[in-house]
Structures are given as C-alpha cells and as structure tokens.
Amino acid sequence: MDIRPYTIAIPDEELADLRDRLARTRWPAALTEDWARGTPVPYAQRLARYWLDDYDWRAEEARLNRLPQFLAEVDGQPIHGLHVRSADDGAVPLLLLHGYPSCFVEFAGIAPLLAEPGQGGAADAATPAFHVVAPSMPGFGFSTPLTSHGWDIARTAQAFDELMQALGYDRYAVFGEDVGAGVSEQLCLDAGDRVLGSIAATDPGAIATAYTPPTDHLTDDERERHDRLKDARTEDFGYLALQTSRPLSIAYGLTDSPIAQATWIVEKFQEWTDPRAGLPEDAVDLDALLTLVTVTWFGRGGDGAANMLYEAAHAQAAWGRQHDRPQGMAAFGEEPLMERILNPDGHLAFWREHPRGGHFPAMEAPDELVGDIRAYFARLLAV
C-alpha cells in the first residue's frame, strides 16, 4: 500500500476563491431567527462575516500540520488522516472513526492526549497510551474525491483494516461514533481477533432512529417517552432522506456554495450538540467548527459524504451476524432511556454516562471521552 506523509497546503488561489464566493453569497429572505426551518439567515450572515473577517485559515492549517498526517491509497480510494504515535513504543494502536458530518478534524484535539496520557508522563496499566490513527471516511475531509461507487460500511471497514495492517498494527482497538460506530461494528465482525475491542459514543438521538434495538422490555411510561423522542426527531431527518435518495441533488449546492456547505453542517451542530447550548459555538469552539467546515469545503466533502450515506443506505445489511469482540459505550447527554435501550441487560463490557455533551463528544467533552477510552481499554488490557 502506498502511504505517504501529508502536509495540508491549500493554494492561495483556492483561499481567495472561498473568500470571493462568501462575499458574493445570494441570501434567502431573512424571515426568522428560529432554527426550526434550518439555519436562520441572520445567523448565517453573522457566521459568514466571521469566516471572512476574523477566522484565520492559515493559523488553523498550521495547527493541523503540527499533527503527523498520512495520505494512502486503499482499493483505489485516497484515504487521509492523522497518525499520532505515542512516545511509548508499546502503546495500543487505536483507530478513531468519526460520524456524519465530520472528518479527522474532530479528533485533532484529543489525538495528542490519547498518545501521551498523564500530561506526557509514563503510561501504566491504568492510563494506557495509544498510537492514534484517525482517518476521514471515504468521501469526507481530504479522503476525496470518491473514485468509485460502492463505498458502504463493509467496504470502508475492509479498507481501514488493511490500512491498520499496512501501518504495522496487526491488532488494534477501535472507537467509533455514528457512521463510525457502524464501521467499528463491521470491523468486529470481519477483522475478528485483530480487533482488541471497540467502544462507541452515543447520545439521545441514537435511540430515536429506525435502527433502535428492541424496546419490548420498556414500561408503558418509558415507551411513551421513547415515542416522544422519536416524534421530536422526525423533522430532523430531512438531510438523511435527501442524501440517501438523491445525493447529487444536494451535492451541487454543497460543492458550489461555501455558505451552503457551512449551514448544512452547522445546523447539525445546533441540533445534535448538548441541548443546553444555545448556539453551536456555545457547545464547541467556533474556530474548530469552521475548520471542520473549511476542510470539508476544500476537500469537496459535501459531495462525498452525501454519496457515502447513499451507499450505506442501499447496501445489504449484515443482520443476524454476531462476534465475540468486547464492546463498550460512552453515553453523552441526560437521558435515562439510553442505558435502558442500549444496555438493558448489562451485556456491554463498559458503560459510562455523562450529563453534558452530545453527538460530537471529542469536541464537546474531550476530557470525558479521553477518560472513557482510556478506562475501558485499561480494563480490557488488565484481563
């Protein structure tokens, strides 16, 4: 496999083009400040002004480039990501898998923490260090462009398994969230003993989807509460219905308009982060959020992400398959039904809940997530 070191170096002309497109945005009518219909125009206009006048891409580019990166070709597809090796040669290889609508940028803050736990001190059985590999999914971030159809969950899992072995990691741990949790589960099924164990992050939105596990054991009051959660989530699925049926219909706008790409992502941060945060920037750092958006823009990841969701929705699911890999879960957000639905019989090897946070824990609650990953794999390694 061809794996090369990678440094982000966006040409000046691409940065100038981004600024020009932002300055020439044609705006819809500003009828409301409410988020019920999507990102409100006044908020989007304030975000665009900040992006143009205050946000410093070159500073963010330099920050990202302080982390070692790679570019590989796997099954004909470019795969880009972080590869942060620990100073401890015996550290545990750890594959971090993001969800939608994210990319490797989400893990830029926690990768160094995981590589050197204890503020750079020596790792021990209670605070294992990790060799961190954080690729962007095919079609996301700089793992672009998609070179062929068929990049569903199973093919992505196979590619990442091959990537980890090519990097010299015959056995490795996995963390996944959202789509990444699906890839993590597929790795447990297909890679077998090469996976030491997996841990997933979840939030209340995960129990309000069509893929929720059986709920026959819930009480009448719990079932009523679950129905309310599902009803509240119904209008949130417009993005999914479009991308899993007509991904090209949205890909044109996301590829041509930076404000379309920004509002498409920022809306999900508004809806899926901790509900106590009034605005996306109250839940996550605004510059970090715009860096995720800007990487997606430069990589044309809106197109790739839409098409990957389409592939995942149209692939044959591996229902009924089981594996013996240990699994843990870190839950973010106050919702008692999460454990009742996702771990009703205590079958998971690890379960921990946090009252704050949401769909993007690496950005919302990084210390809690790092602590959970470390605690879970310390427990597994001690067995």
From TrEMBL:
Any one of the GO BP annotations: epoxide metabolic process
User: What is a GO molecular function of this protein?
Assistant: epoxide hydrolase activity
* Alphabetized Pfam families for the sequence: EHN
Q: Write out the catalytic residues in the record.
A: D178 (nucleophile), Y310 (proton donor), H359 (proton acceptor)
Ribonucleoprotein: present as a keyword of the record? no
* InterPro entries linked: AB_hydrolase_fold, Epoxide_hydro_N, Epoxide_hydrolase
Domain named Epoxide hydrolase N-terminal: residues: 3-107
Q: Which family does it belong to?
A: Belongs to the peptidase S33 family.
Spell out the protein name for this chain. Epoxide hydrolase 1
What species was this sequence derived from? Agromyces mariniharenae
**Which lineage ranks, top first, belong to the organism behind this chain?**
Bacteria, Bacillati, Actinomycetota, Actinomycetes, Micrococcales
